[in-house]
Amino acid sequence: MQQFFSYTVSGMGTAAIYAIAAAGLVLTYTTTGVFNFAHGATSMLGAFTYWQMRFAWHLPAPVALVLCLGVLAPLFGMLLERGVMRYLDGTSETTKVVTTISLMLGLLGLSLWIWNPSASRPFPRFWEGEVLTVGGVRIPYHVVATLAITGFVAIVLWLMLKRTRFGVSMRAVVDDRSLVALNGARPHVISMASWSVGTVLAAMAGVLIAPSLKLSALPLTLLVVNAYAAAVMGKLKSLPLTFVGALVLGLGTEYLRGYQGSLRISQKLMPGFLASVPVVILLVVLVVGRSPLRGQTITRVRETVQRPTWAGSTGMGAGIVLIAALLSDVLPRTDLFTLGRIWGLGIIALSLIPVVGFGGHLSLCQMSFAGVGMVMIQHLGGRGSPLALIAAAAVPAVLGMIVAIPSFRLSGIYFALSTAAFAVLMDRWIFLLPRFRFLGMDWDIFNGGSLDLRRTRFFGLSTEGNRAFFVYGAVAFALVSVAVVAIRRSNYGQRLIALKDSPAACATLGMNIKVAKLGVFAVSAGLAGLGGALYGQGMQSATTESVQFLSSLTLLMVMVVAGLNSPGAALFAGVFLGFGLNNVIFGKLADLVPDRLGWAQGFFDKLGTNTLIVVGLAGLSLGRHPDGFVATRLRPRWDQILARPHALLGIGGTLGVAYTARVAGLIGNWPFAIVTLVVLVFVPRVIIPKGPGANAEDLSGDPEEVMIRASARGH
Amino acid sequence: MGEMALELNGVRARYGSVEVLHEVDLSLRRGSVLAVLGSNGAGKSTLLKVTAGLHPIASGSIRLDGRNVVGWSPDRLARRGVCLIPEGRGVFPHLTVRENLWMATHLGVTRKDAEAMAFERFARLGDRPNQLAGTLSGGEQQMLALARAVITKPSVLMVDELSMGLAPRLADSLYESVRQIAADGVSVLLVEQFARTVLGMADRAAIMVSGRVVIQGTPADVEAHLSSAYLGG
Q1: For residue B96, how far is the Cα from the chain centroid?
Q2: By Cβ atoms counted within 10 A, which residue in A370, A402, A483, A555 is the most buried?
């Protein structure tokens, strides 16, 4: 019994912290309509800031707490509203979620920039070692304090939201922003206050939990994934139910940890499972919860899904293969090895287009499917068998259909959370499982954490060499991109877009919604598995880190910034993440800076090695350009250029001359690469200063006005 | 203070490059009721939006009690006494009736007084103060929206299509409430598609066609031109 009380006390301490974190999430969602994926990153930043003031600068704890939670956190919340969130009105839930994901990545990058991740930072608990004894049960002071703080937060929040006009206004802003203004209140001030309070709660949770996670950036950032389950139990709106959810989560995890020895489950399987308990609870709540959970419905959004032309798409595919063939001839084998991974990543990025772009289902687990694709190559492609490639697409496709099942009753952010839970479950448990015996067979899913991946042989043709693999990857990417365009132009693609706009209308027209959803998930997961296979074969080995949840978020982020519906954006995502484009660009910039400007060199070096911060910063502009830069800036101009033989001839000629100069040794790789980039990206802007993309450029500015303009044009 | 509560002179407004209001001139005499009529797409709702500060004007002037209010935000205009009940139930569906009424207390009325004023005029709302507004019937939602107008004691009340989606008898009773608000000295601008409902209670009326005010005068003058304005004859 003593043991039971001891687990209960410990579980309640954890539950209290989850409750504060989840309350912040729910508050922000109910008062702004934005589910803040950056909530955990804000917690992490709060914890690091407190550590800096308390333990690096040695400020007294009360002063550090007041500065951190009373001054900096609210100011940061206001800044977020003013600089980022204000521009998200009228955008789809996908854009909103992705913007907060970009914020999360940016904050993670920022913390890695400021605080060296390899340095040790002791973070003792409040009242470390002091214990209160009640009826023989020892309760640490910090647990008592955490419970008291949580109770105080619960009462203050409830009173604020239910009993003050300001709190009621915070909830009203989500219903109708304009109507709030017509009542004489200031919506932006109210939103700022909401973000401030949410940020304070996030920072508070971070400061309280950091001691048990040893002040490490990534675990603290992902802590909030655990709090999702509590927030979802409160249906993202009820604070009391959220607190109950946190209690279930905290106690459930602690009891399971405490009594695992007495369970009849192989102890080998337990460590990863224990870490996954919060996401398993999240999945269970989402899948078997009493009523369907629907995300926000926005009748008209600023994003558009352009219909790509056949000429443009096949032209792009042929161009990619041609340029890849030319590059394979001039680039050194080591560079070709590095570049080989861009095609796999590009195909995984392409897999997002049908499911997120056309279908509107926010999938946060594409890299998990990619990981399954890699596993298939590991276990079935030992001799380069092409059958392994088929399995790499087929098994994730089946898995994709299973992941799609919650979409029958979930939509919007709730479905996104179920895919996040699936990804985290794969990361924390399935991919980390040690060798085990099941159904009379030995299973070692991720080969002890590292895969050794053979490249495929097709009817005697080997792709083992780096040159051959580079061209083969380009051909595969081109074929998949044309296939994605074919889906968009087909009746099925149109049905998917219609389904995104109005499931009810589609159902009344006789469409089988479930089959359509299962289909798009199967296709998307299959492509992601295929992409994963090529990505892994490009690297010839893979670890679990390369397919983690965070990688899925980063890929989605880059894809949305570039333009979610465009195959060109997928190519950009592949090149940016596969080649480490920011590393190359900022590394070169650092080399160009004179030695006397050491600070500038350091700045560019840091930017070069910190992909997260670059990606995060890029994503924060999404509210202003929700269609992405490839779809609105590049592709429309290229569509026009393809219809102008003279322009096409000029561009082709310039590239031909540059290539000849490179082959003849007149210029090096870098000048050749710069000329190619300028010709492909900037020359179209000169030839067609105001392409058809001008329409898309109109979709910037005040969100309300934009929606009205869009409706006037019949978007 | 002049005799005009609200004056619009040469107002133009655009959605992108499309001009939807062309040189609109309108004036609302203090304490009177002005009915603006017109078919769908005539620009009536846009007219109210620009007057309430929800949409910018391209040129022209809008004067409230003689003061130019072009560029003012909706909340600033609301605090200066402009109250708009927008088309399609101007309520917060996820707030209770009571909380909806609190939203109208930004201008200094206490909650207790707000509830007393609202429930005195609309007793049906008093029966269900803790019901979510989104679950009220259409007529009750319009009552709630009108109750807000009663609480804020505006100098100018603008109502967009009050009768939309309501049974004629219910619409008549709501217009009766508007008549009582006007009788308290509030200047009222009514926008409606169904002309005869509001002409009976208006002091002056205007007809809009394709973003232009084509006729302005007494209700009797306007009624004579109704068919030609609506049917393009």
Answers
A1: 23
A2: A370
